[in-house]
Fold:
Amino acid sequence: MFHFSALDFIHRVSAHITSLSPPDYYPPHCLIHSGICVIYKLALMDKTSDFSMSCDPSRSLQTLFPSPEEGWEIYSSAQDPDGKCVCAVVAQRSMCSRDARSKQLRQLLEKVQNISQSIEVLDLRTYRDLQYVRNTESLMKVLNARLKVAAESQTNLLNKNFQDLKEKMNELLPLIPVLDQYKSDARLILKLKEEVRNLSVVLLGIQEEMGAYDYEELQHRVMLLEQRLHACMQKLGCGKLTGISNPFTVRASGSRFGAWMTDTLASSTENRLWYMDGYLNGRTVREFRSFNDFVKGEKFVIYRLPHPWAGTGHVVFNGSLYYNKYQSNIIIKYHFRSRSVLVQRSLDGAGYNNTYPYSWGGFSDIDLMVDESDLWAVYTTNQNAGNIVISRLDSQTLEILQSWDTGYPKRSAGESFVICGTLYVTNSHLAGAKIYFAYYTNTSSYEYTDIPFHNQYSHISMLDYNPRDRVLYTWNNGHQVLYNVTLFHVVKTSGEL
Structure:
């Protein structure tokens, strides 16, 4: 693994791009998820390049949802069929590994500034006293000198009065060392003021050199970077599924069947997660504030849906839950913030009530899903003789915009999901399942595939792709599981249509 700070990464990549001629590299590919995830691709011209790196292609949940200590890292590399080196880089939104030091520096600077303010107040309070002490000291010294002269001559003083004055002066003489100490303390305050002032200058210089003026400034810079990464994504074509990682079990909870998901269109700072246990006639949705809360099973909000659901083909998209209403082919759009149904519409001709479910049953007649740009419904009708139909829906009105008959029998499918407008279908929900069939809506064509994945708990009842995180969310026999996906990216150049 190669680890860089955020600025190091930017400088190195910028320098490398500058050194290459246009035919030698592809534009970068970038991705946002619940941190900042940057997929940066370089395609070099020959196999002998020394820019290739060897990394573990699979990532753990800690990479998907990083801890604050993590920074930028290169996590995978490969060669495409033309021998070009393809490297992927991830940057988590931990504000880089130096953020903890920046925050500590800011806190230290605040403490120094507070000390400086306290010293200023102390200095002001002692200034008048110090002036009085200095005047009193001078008077005492003058008086003591005159008494010494008088004691030697004793011509103009009565003996009794002289002795009284001498005794009073003797009582005051011990105060002179005290006054000296007071002056010394005052000088120490001035010295301390100067040291604090110098320390503040040094800390400010260090902070400026680190480029971390404060947390808010750093946050703003990251937001600007995030916007640039979003713009970067628009220059790229979509990816074709070429591999699925080993599973990562997040939690074991609930019944054998259910669904869990995050919002596919939420911002990178949004980490809420929704959990719907069971496949029939359920109404309770739990909203967890973060993945950590979900793992611990705590800090959740409960929503009571106005209509029960059927199956497990639900999806959360742009703050709303889309699901199939029980005992109907009606799709409901439920808005979480207002706790109300925004729209509901019948999916014309779609089977329901276990008429055309997946092979595992569970009233999975209608499966809703979201890819990089659209809301989709996977179902079948009598007119299609039980073959899978995939329809692109308007997320606002739920109207069907376009439909495709894939020709694949739905009862033979274990589960399915959509990536970049391509429907991928598993051949089973049991052990030994693999991605067996792919239908491409952009060309209205299909192919049989052979992409294996480890069905660890041997009974999948929900499998959905999340384009924000680029992972598959799976409910597998009472376990909530994640899979990373490997996509082969076709990068469009400016000369292509």
About this structure: The two ends are 37 Å apart (CA to CA). The longest strand covers residues 300-310. The chain has a mean pLDDT of 75.
